[in-house]
Amino acid sequence: MEPIPIPPKPGQESVWDYPRPARWENSNKQIKIICNGIILASSNQAKRVIETSHPPTYYIPSQDIQMQYLVATLKEKVVLLIGS
After folding, report:
1. Domain spans of the chain?
2. How many CA atoms lie within 13 A of 32 on its CB side?
């Protein structure tokens, strides 16, 4: 069964217009993460990964994150940034 793309409204992007393979690019938007009224992160320097049929994934520089609100964990995750 083939997916049926929904046409984007004005000011929106369609995931079906994104490239394949994925592309790493600067975001042209201010990115804010707010939880319970607290700004956890705010950045004008975010990067994003876009790929056909996938929602964008945003990466925020650590200096733009309010680390005092985060809790350390014993789990580790390594993210390889190719072409950054």
Report:
1. 24-68
2. 7
